[in-house]
Amino acid sequence: MAGKLWLTAMVILTAICAAAINQSVSAGSDKAVAGNTPESATIAEPVTAHTSPADIQSSQNYFQNGQALRRRNQYLLAMLHLDQALRLNPGNREALTERSLCASEFKKGIPVTVENDSADLKESIVETLGKIQEAWNKHDIEAFLHFYETDYLNEDGYNKAILAKLTSDYWKTYPDAHSVQGKLQVYICRDYASVTSEDTATGTASPSKLGTGSLKVKSQALMLLHRSSDGWKVVGDIILKENAVIGYGLSADAAIPTLSAANSVEKGKESSARLIYETKSTVWASITASPIKYPPKPPRDTFFVVHGTMDRIYRMPALYQNALILATVWASETNNTDAPSQLVILSARANSFYPGAESTAAIGMLKPPLFKIK
Q1: Which member of 32, 188, 234, 313 lies 3.0 to 4.6 Å from 40 by CB, making a disulfide possible if both were Cys?
Q2: Would you put residue 308 in left (φ > 0), alpha (ψ -120 to 50) or beta?
Q3: Do the strands 264-266 and 258-261 form a parallel or antiparallel pair, or are they unpaired?
Q4: CB of 238 within 8 A of CB of 360?
């Protein structure tokens, strides 16, 4: 159950759907231009000129946590804390140096001692993941959070309190939300472990003027765990890849648009996203890119008439944040812009990295982060 981090994407998608369904798309000359290539969509996230004393202190605390974890060879977990230190204070040069050192040491690899009871350890980890999966599918927030450490942190800087809020909101929006766990790969290094899996999830949103919303999610994630006297607990999460789609007013055999974007982009640099929708209906669409942060804010963008394909240039945040790429697609079989019959929203994730240091997600895919049990 290593892929429960699409909560942010789903909350944003839901917020957009709720707002969008209550209004129609205006396809006037100033908002939808047939045949024109949309202008660059730059993420509106200015570099903060002033960092508060509280953020500086919190940044230093995360830096010290990351440094201590690196010295214990817990490189991926260390990078989560160092990334958070840089989000809070981009001018923390100690954290940036430590982050680069951490990534370099991780890629070189370290000797790991194999424990005699590794098979039993693997079984206990798989059992823990099964309980997390069961609690999530039962929408039991107390049982779900029991398996998360107090100092839990994910790659977007979300702590346990934010995880609890997003999870609860997600279940309220999709009362029948259900997740299926894919094949697991378990790696163990003494009292730490990591698990990778490819998960899928489905859900149904409340009825609207366009009918009910159908949600589908695919994600590949890395979950970091620590063993204490209370058993295995989740201490960190890293999303490697994720794609989600929610559709309103779609028939069972309707064509579904696709959204593609680079999985890893250097911070502050431009990249592109492409929407493809092969349909006979009249289509208006927008593509936006927003920093992943809490609380999430639905982006605003201009809609354009789309004939099969739409490309959009966007810029990654200048700060140490990942980005959520969203495509919002309206369709009408009658060419009536005031009465669209279909709405599809898609999301893709772009993990940020900075010069001299790859993204935590990219490094996590590079090689097994901990000892692999055969």
Answers
A1: 313
A2: left
A3: unpaired
A4: yes
Q: What is the pLDDT along the chain (374 residues), one digit of tens a residue?
A: 544 545 555 555 555 555 555 555 544 333 444 444 444 444 444 444 467 888 888 989 999 998 998 888 788 888 888 888 888 888 888 988 888 888 777 766 644 444 444 677 888 998 999 999 999 999 999 999 999 999 999 988 899 999 999 899 889 888 999 999 888 888 887 788 888 888 899 998 877 777 788 889 998 888 899 998 889 999 998 888 889 998 888 777 778 899 999 988 888 889 999 999 988 778 889 999 988 888 877 777 778 888 899 999 998 887 778 899 999 998 887 665 566 778 899 999 998 876 655 555 554 444 444 433 33
Q: For 156-160, which contacts have Cβ atoms below 8 Å and span 24 or more sequence positions?
A: 156/5, 156/8, 156/292, 156/293, 156/294, 156/321, 156/322, 157/83, 157/84, 157/87, 157/293, 157/294, 158/8, 158/294
What is the spatial distance between Cα 313 and Cα 304, in angstroms, rounded to a whole number? Answer: 14
The overall longest dimension of the chain from CA atoms, in Å, is: 70
- CATH code of 7-42+113-366, in short, is 3.10.450.50
CB 340 within 8 A of CB 252: no
| E strand segments, the chain | 41-42, 148-154, 178-180, 185-189, 192-208, 211-228, 231-248, 258-261, 264-266, 270-276, 282-291, 304-306, 309-315, 323-332, 342-353
Tokens in use for 101?
């050192």
Q: Where are the domains of the chain?
A: 7-42+113-366, 53-108
The CA distance from 20 to 196, in Å, is 35
Compute the distance between CA of residue 70 and CA of residue 63 in angstroms, rounded to an integer. 11
In order of 37, 250, 299, 312, 329, the CA distances from 41 in angstroms are 12, 28, 11, 7, 16
Q: Is 221 helix (H, G, I), strand (E, B) or coil?
A: strand
